Amino acid sequence: MSQTTDDGLVRPGVGGGLADVVRARFLLKLLVRKELKVRYRGSVLGLLWSYVKPGVQFIVFYIALGVFLGLEKSPRNENGLPNYAIYLFSGIVLINFFTEALGNASRSIVGNGGLIKKIYLPRQLFPVASVWVSAVHFFPQLVILVAACLFAGWHPSVFQLGAAVLGFVIVALLSTGLGLLFGAANVYFRDSENFVDMLLMVATWASPVMYSWTMVQDKLGPVWFTLYQVNPITVAVETFHWAFWLPTTDGSTPVPPHLLSIWLPVGLVVSALVLLWGQLTFRRLEGRFAQEL
Amino acid sequence: MTTAIEVRGINKQFVLRHTRSIKEAFVWLMKGRKGDLSAKFHALRDVDLTVAQGETVALLGFNGSGKSTLLKHISGVMIPDSGTVRTRGRVAGLIEVGAGFHHDLSGRDNVYLNGAILGMTEAQIKERFDSIVEFAEIGEFIDTEVKFYSSGMYLRLAFSVAVHTDPEVFLVDEILAVGDEPFQKKCIAKIQELAAEGKTLVVVSHDLDLVARICDRGVLLDHGNVMFDGPIDEAVARMRGQR
What we know:
The complex is a heterodimer of chains A (about 290) and B (about 240). Chain A has about 290 residues and is mostly helical.
């Protein structure tokens, strides 16, 4: 929690970054539990809302995009994607996780201002707890996804399951990194949370959640498509498609080239760098939180 | 004597007014950068303070003299612009008790959450839980959400958690006016007991008679400067004389 000097005296308020979060994991656990308890307080449906909201969102997108805009493969529409419902849902659960995690993490420091102003504790706990809570909400959606996949004849390989875990890790690292960055910036400029809202809207469409990656490649050409692929969310979504959606089809749909050999490691590295950046920025800014809040 | 708190030449400036909108910054630029975009305020000026282990120190001064700011530097909530603050052992604050309480959680959950926020481990909280509830005189209401507590019950529970954190250095900021009179007496007795046990205490209070009873040493602050540092009776007399 503090920096030790030679004679046993320590400087208070000098944090050890994310290492402090590991040390304070009991407090992290309690903060996560608090959030989960408080989130749906006083509502009849309670935690069911975590199922209902993505469910309705999925139905709306499926009807609008799959049926009306013709992305679903059917006898009258040979160019569509087979099992579009699963294609869509496997991307949506990941985007929902990212949206909730980053949105809440960006607001977490200002939201806990009352506490941060009065008591010293590792402040990184708040964004990390937000991401953790979102991961808990992600889980029931994953269960529904797996159930739907099994119903559609899912037969994944061990590699595909492993890749899905890495896809999740990419999004978790990225949202923690950006959450630290924007959470800290939000203390100084409340523009930050509005910027994040905008970013999240863009993120939903800047990765192949609703549409197929081949459409992007056809329109953009190889150079711009490479840039498109650098986005870690794109890679994570494509990985999820490979793990959950592809094994439910006849497997004839092409996977983005070098998805596993190049893009998955690139996605992990980019996310890790963003986390490092967020962490460094957070540590530089946190010294003045108490007086700026 | 072993040093518990060592404050060396710390300065702290606060920016009073922020211009954060593009519009205001633009107007300022157009007017030829007249005036400061932000005014600054010196909260602490070259403050030195060394507290030995087991000392009981009162920080005295009028509102805005920098007492609470100094306390926040010792607790680590704030970091000085220049100078250093160093402490030995765990420092815990009875600063604004109940800051970590959440209205929608039960008393029990809040004891755990607040205990962990104040730096207690899971085992410590479990071990002291009964003692915390007993001291707070909450009894059967411990599983009720704290939003249904009376303000007295709320403060008693918060104080009780804070006082059970058992740190080496206690920072107390104006919370001795907790609850009704019997409970206030109990709190003061508890703080005196801590002092007798050899805990280091730093107290901020406007209740001069009370701090004279608890503390041995008084530090008088005025506009961020240390005006006097010595025996509590003399500090209190000076404080009264200034008025």
